[in-house]
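ok so dumb question maybe but i'm new to this and my supervisor (M.) told me to 'just get the structure for NADPH-protochlorophyllide oxidoreductase' and walked off. so i did the thing. is this what she meant?? sequence i used:
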Amino acid sequence: MALQAAYSILPSTVSIHKEGKFSASLKETTLTGFSFSNRAKADKISPLLTTKRRQKPRFYTGVRAQTVTATPPANEASPEQKKTQRKGTAVITGASSGLGLATAKALADTGKWHVIMACRNFLKAERAARSVGMSKEDYTVMHLDLASLESVKQFVDNFRRTEQPLDVLVCNAAVYQPTAKEPSFTAEGFELSVGTNHLGHFLLSRLLLDDLKKSDYPSKRMIIVGSITGNTNTLAGNVPPKANLGDLRGLASGLNGQNSSMIDGGDFDGAKAYKDSKVCNMLTMQELHRRYHEETGVTFASLYPGCIATTGLFREHIPLFRLLFPPFQKYITKGYVSEEEAGKRLAQVVSDPSLGKSGVYWSWNNNSSSFENQLSKEASDAEKAKKLWEVSEKLVGLA
Ligand code: NDP
Ligand code: PMR
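this is what came out, is it supposed to look like this??
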């Protein structure tokens, strides 16, 4: 019933013809992100009926007032070092709610971390930190609006002025606009989802890499949050609209709505733009690993934390979706995780010595044990990652 209900709220995105066959697929692919091997089953989900959409730029004036590469864990601390180790400093973007907040809380609770909550809404972040019981000395809120490259640069300057070391960067913030009929745009005029989730983080990570390099912490890490829905080797990744960056022609032409506001040059689709942005996040992590892991000792990682169906990510979805999505994920797909559990998972990727391998996309099974997951063909395409890197560098003004 719940599945039918979930299905009935998705008329514009997906259709499943036979409930029985679909249930069989679910058994094979849990929410934890195991590979979806039987493409025939995925094909039971019909393609999205796309409609032509007018692309009228709406500029977002974001700045507010106020199989995996094997490398041994880099620079892990010996037990002796750990005793005297200073507190680590972790910057987490989008720590004002959901996964980012839960991770900040999990790290703060260990007493070993100071968290820089890099958030677009200063007051909201401050209230959120207090609402989960974080102590003042365990966090600092700093303004960062990823939908403005100027704000990203300002954040980096402000962070450097605090003269704190940077030991871990977590690129977590994201926007998801599944019901948007037309694209909206960042301050510099990029489609909002890819502009925020990928380009904002791309610039931030490139700038802060210098700071990470200088860290003397036993394990320095950069984590970019990915997702199962960007991976078409899973059932979840086969729910239309599917991620597909194509030949990046839309991105290369500026992603500004003049030619296209989608990376592949197609018609605007908010849900696809989000999934594309997650593919960019996972490709960027691997490209960073290839270019910098050996030279810097920084561990680069991505992850799918589980389906945290209650977060603010779904705030723009229709109310019926928000009502049915959590029970659908809890009882049907069984991929649901609480914000608290997901926060603990990401906190492991931040600080657990056993998750210190670079170039990995982490997932968790139903017993909450971590494992190195396989990315889809596109999300592990090294040539595409290189091209994405080069085009993104131009767009954010690094090349
Ligand atoms: P939330 O909406 O709860 O958190 C997103 C955070 O991003 C919020 O703090 C939000 O700030 C912030 N944010 C949005 N836009 C900007 C911006 N322009 N500048 C700075 N911060 C911004 O969603 P989740 O916690 O679910 O999402 C966190 C990450 O987890 C995302 O990367 C998402 O893709 C990923 N993820 C989530 C899954 C899920 O099931 N929920 C599954 C897989 C991955 P504000 O509070 O001001 O809105
Ligand atoms: Mg999905 C094992 C199956 C599974 C998992 C793990 C997810 C995770 N989803 C699964 C299956 C299905 N979903 C099925 C069979 C359907 C059709 C009924 C379905 C539908 C669906 C929708 C409409 N699912 C969604 C949406 C969203 O709007 C969410 C999304 O795609 O956001 C981009 C979503 C998600 N499903 C997930 C996860 C983790 C999401 C959240 C998005 C993300 O961050 O990737």
